[in-house]
Amino acid sequence: xxxxxxxxxxxxxxxxxxxxxxxxxxxxxxxxxxxxxxxxxxxxxxxxxxxxxxxxxxxxxxxxxxxxxxxxxxxxxxxxxxxxxxxxxxxxxxxxxxxxxxxxxxxxxxxxxxxxxxxxxxxxxxxxxxxxxxxxxxxxxxxxxxxxxxxxxxxxxxxxxxxxxxxxxxxxxxxxxxxxxxxxxxxxxxxxxxxxxxxxxxxxxxxxxxxxxxxxxxxxxxxxxxxxxxxxxxxxxxxxxxxxxx
Length: 246
What we know:
Elements: E1 5-10, H1 15-27, E2 33-37, H2 45-58, E3 62-64, H3 71-78, H4 88-107, E4 112-116, H5 124-137, E5 140-142, H6 144-147, H7 152-161, H8 186-195, H9 197-210, H10 220-226
Parallel strand pairs: 1-2, 1-4, 2-3, 4-5
């Protein structure tokens, strides 16, 4: 590989990262754009469908750099449950895989790496953290969705306009993360119990087995009994019922 710049898109299977992929392919030389995916082995089945179809429509292959273990396997290997205070699954299965890939790029002669993330302007805290991390680790980072002031709904509409329907995850979740994401709050976990009871029940059994909880102040089974004490406002839900993109 020649010494050059590489423009990496963190391609998660969500609508904003897909929009960023399209943006990058319009703004940089196609051969220098890398759509980087890290498989947690517990993504929603329809998210895998979305990734495959979007890659085909954009006519650009997906580059995968994965640990090889699932989230659940990682819990057993670490002898601990991750949670929204200590999301080591995200660190090991995603962040560390990104870092490994960037090291390989640099070793192959790439001088400048520009990472592109699909964070919206509403996610300013994530933008700050990602900016600091990039500065520390010697690469650049951009946030096209925030820069262009694009909403998540507009990203979803763009996907639909290409004939690629967003993942079914968006019908009940704000993000297309793995099912049973440890970063989720109480409202999210209650939706998991309704939408994917098999995953919820598996997580309940993990709490019993490990003697730890995913949430700071309750078990999942108690949450299912108590429900929410107050209504939770959705931050940025999208409408995906229309398949034609009109």
